[in-house]
């Protein structure tokens, strides 16, 4: 037995350094997934409660609301605050997290914070040292416009709802009759009313996921310009190049070591699939207690800049003058291999207008499918897989440069 162990160790010691890294990483990944405490094994909802919401939405008829001076002041304050914080991806992402720290019962705010971090990373990738080799400047600008518009629209719609909840909580008074003043879909009213009384975090989170994905459906995803230029063209090329898209939740273990959890996304065009993705991400983040705690540790310690060096400074650098090591093919390179700028260095702020006030929700008797049950993933650590695919991208990028 001792000889076998010694022989195995001898063979392991002869592996290249990245091979040893791979073995250590595999152990850490498997061990973390096996030992993590699960808060819930599946995300599901009470059918009778959903029927109550369905009935309320079916009979709902908007009626004029007489506002007090206090109401008018609050509405104006919320609009000004939302506009101020809707400056760029960094300010939006920070605003979500600051809200969540004050109101941790609103799970969606932390989920939105981490997803918005991913949006920022996707934006800065377009100005890094890999994607510019395969995307012309015009395409990069169009893809950034798509990402920025979706990020800004969701914030414009969701953040007033969060602030209205905060005001309701402070005043111990339901203020959700003011939702129409922000052109929020009638779909959200019964869920906020219920949450204010019952604090059902899961139900509100899924309702917000449903609402925000439907909110951007016609405004961005199915908008003729974005659909033709981005979804049917640029995104297809990127998926062909990258094979898939990652949504990453960095989490910190052993005090200072960052790892990556999340899921891969291959379909963005279908609203139902995006809702399922949102629910699955929610299960990963809040359904697994250890991961939630370690993701929160990361978010609290590392402010969002838009650069991927936020979560992996060994691999990424925000310094465009730093010499890159593009041929190490290791998950622990001695020097960074990829340039990843901060958002403010990569892109200028964009001025948005929000003139489309149509309500996406029209009751057509098809309601429960939005809330169908979904299991909490048992495999969620993507550190090793992401590293392997990133190194493939680096190698392909270097090959393109050599050919040129």
Describe the structure.
Pfam families: DUF2515. It comes from Anaerobacillus isosaccharinicus. This is DUF2515 domain-containing protein. The chain has helices at 2-13, 17-35, 47-59, 69-85, 89-102, 107-125, 137-171, 189-198, 201-221, 224-242, 271-287, 289-301, 343-346, 383-403; strands at residues 42-43, 245-253, 257-265, 316-317, 338-339, 374-375. The strands form 3 sheets. The chain has a two-stranded antiparallel sheet with strand order 1-6. By secondary structure, it is mainly α. It is globular. It has one domain (38-59, 69-308, 349-391). Helix 4 runs antiparallel to helix 7 (137-171) and helix 11 (271-287) crosses helix 12 (289-301).
Question: What's the arrangement of secondary structure elements?
Answer:
Layout: H1 2-13, H2 17-35, E1 42-43, H3 47-59, H4 69-85, H5 89-102, H6 107-125, H7 137-171, H8 189-198, H9 201-221, H10 224-242, E2 245-253, E3 257-265, H11 271-287, H12 289-301, E4 316-317, E5 338-339, H13 343-346, E6 374-375, H14 383-403
Parallel strand pairs: 4-5
Antiparallel strand pairs: 1-6, 2-3
Compose a concise summary of this entry:
By secondary structure, this protein is mainly α. The chain has 14 helices and 6 strands. It has one domain (38-59, 69-308, 349-391).
């Amino acid at each position: 037995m001792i000889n076998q162990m010694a022989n195995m160790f001898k063979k392991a010691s002869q592996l290249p350094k990245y091979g040893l890294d791979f073995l250590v990483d595999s152990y850490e990944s498997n061990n973390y997934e096996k030992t993590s405490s699960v808060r819930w094994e599946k995300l599901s909802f009470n059918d009778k409660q959903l029927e109550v919401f369905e009935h309320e939405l079916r009979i709902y008829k908007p009626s004029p609301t007489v506002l007090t001076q206090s109401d008018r002041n609050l509405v104006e304050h919320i609009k000004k605050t939302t506009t101020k914080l809707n400056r760029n991806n960094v300010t939006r992402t920070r605003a979500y997290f600051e809200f969540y720290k004050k109101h941790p019962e609103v799970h969606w705010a932390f989920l939105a914070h981490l997803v918005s971090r991913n949006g920022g990373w996707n934006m800065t990738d377009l100005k890094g040292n890999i994607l510019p080799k395969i995307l012309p400047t015009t395409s990069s600008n169009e893809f950034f416009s798509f990402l920025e518009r979706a990020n800004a629209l969701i914030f414009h719609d969701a953040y007033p709802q969060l602030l209205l909840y905060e005001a309701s909580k402070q005043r111990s008074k339901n203020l959700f009759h003011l939702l129409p003043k922000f052109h929020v879909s009638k779909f959200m009213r019964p869920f906020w009313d219920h949450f204010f009384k019952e604090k059902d975090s899961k139900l509100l989170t899924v309702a917000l996921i449903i609402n925000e994905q439907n909110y951007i459906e016609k405004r961005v995803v199915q908008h003729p310009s974005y659909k033709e230029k981005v979804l049917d063209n640029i995104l297809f090329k990127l998926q062909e190049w990258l094979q898939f898209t990652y949504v990453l939740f960095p989490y910190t273990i052993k005090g200072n070591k960052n790892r990556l959890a999340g899921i891969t996304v291959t379909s963005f065009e279908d609203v139902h699939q995006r809702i399922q993705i949102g629910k699955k991400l929610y299960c990963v983040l809040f359904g697994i207690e250890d991961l939630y705690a370690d993701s929160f540790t990361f978010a609290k310690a590392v402010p969002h800049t838009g650069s991927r060096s936020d979560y992996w400074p060994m691999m990424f650098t925000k310094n465009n003058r730093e010499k890159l090591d593009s041929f190490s093919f290791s998950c622990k390179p001695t020097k960074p291999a990829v340039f990843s700028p901060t958002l403010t260095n990569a892109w200028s702020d964009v001025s948005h207008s929000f003139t489309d006030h149509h309500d996406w929700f029209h009751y057509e008797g098809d309601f429960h499918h939005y809330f169908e049950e979904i299991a909490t993933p048992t495999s969620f650590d993507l550190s090793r897989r992401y590293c392997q695919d990133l190194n493939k991208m680096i190698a392909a990028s270097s090959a393109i440069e050599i050919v040129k």
